[in-house]
Amino acid sequence: MRLAGAGRSAIVQALADLGVPEGERKMRLAQLWHWIYHRGAREFSAMRNIARPLLAALAERHDLGRPEIVAEQVSEDGTRKWLLRMPPAHPHDKGAEIECVYIPESDRGTLCVSSQVGCTLNCTFCHTGTMPLVRNLTTAEIVGQVLVARDRLGDFPGGTAPTDGLVPSGEGVRAVSNIVFMGMGEPLYNFDAVRDAIAILTDGDGLSLSRRRITVSTSGVVPEMSRLGAECATMLAVSLHATNNPLRDKLVPLNRKYPIEQLMQACRDYPGASNARRITFEYVMLKGVNDSPAEARALVRLLKGVPAKINLIPFNPWPNSPYACSDWETIERFSEIVFNAGYASPVRTPRGRDILAACGQLKSESEKLRARARLMLEESLVVGQE
Length: 386
Ligand code: SAH
Ligand code: SF4
Hints:
By secondary structure, the chain is of the alpha/beta class. It is 34% helix and 15% strand. Helix 1 (8-17) crosses helix 2 and helix 9 runs parallel beside helix 10 (328-340). The site of S-adenosyl-L-homocysteine has 17 residues, from strand 8, strand 10 and helix 12.
């Protein structure tokens, strides 16, 4: 089994299976946990305070591997995009490839991770929605995206930061300080794996990421939203994209199941939401579809009383996509109405533009995956959280 990305109970089970006496397991777990998640160990042999025979037994049955970086692209502004290959999860699985994007700023770095390969929901503006769901990612595969990013960025003790681009540094500054679940897939349709991954990422004895610096984006899976708040206590982002049900039914078909009224109620009830911990509302700007001044005003009315941030995302077209991105003046007019209602600078500066063009150089098997990588870079518009 792959222990890099495993939770506490899986590691304890692995120790039990190796015959480690019950009374010793707690201590061994603490040691392994520290090496794997705090130190970023990639070999059991590096674990100097654990007895050799146990390390040998661990190495025989388990490994500390990460998803493989198949390709990497670095933008002039330091944005990095990795094509990652997951090993087969079971004998009939061919493995999977996903993209992971890193967006550095001077004092923080945000990693955009995937929760599924593909997506079962069919939002009409989203390319992932046109892919058949290959499968859910496992907890270890979700955590593995963070481990591989930290390896590459020299973010574990003793690591070396790459010299070919911006990686935030300085006293107490971490290269990967923020995580957004805005890659492929609907995280709330893979709830258990996402929850268990968040538990590992936020564990104080390991990666120790703050829950306030983890954002889960959902298209509006209402019944799971309160669970997310209660069991994960992360920040929430909601892909709204329309202010009335007939239009949202078309853009985000899940709206037919959970209409706007239910979605907004779930936001009002989201545990922990407050003015200091606002819910992010994502709104993709689709030319002539949802971008009129009247819709900007409707958006402001809809969010009244909800502790909200708004992120306007310029639509990123894909081959034969049925929409176009709103004109820049239209986005500015929309943004001004939202700004005048008290929401600060809702359109983010695009990042990683220059490597979009070079996307095709990635050795991705599927054109769809490459298109998805472009989307993810565009989505980096929305990830600059506080
Ligand atoms: N499934 C989740 C998270 C992944 S999508 C969700 O829907 O929220 C992350 C964000 O990218 C969502 O807000 C989604 O609506 C947006 N998005 C998808 N396709 C896009 C495109 N072509 N252009 C701009 N944003 C897009
Ligand atoms: Fe799935 Fe999100 Fe894309 Fe909709 S926008 S199809 S929920 S990944």
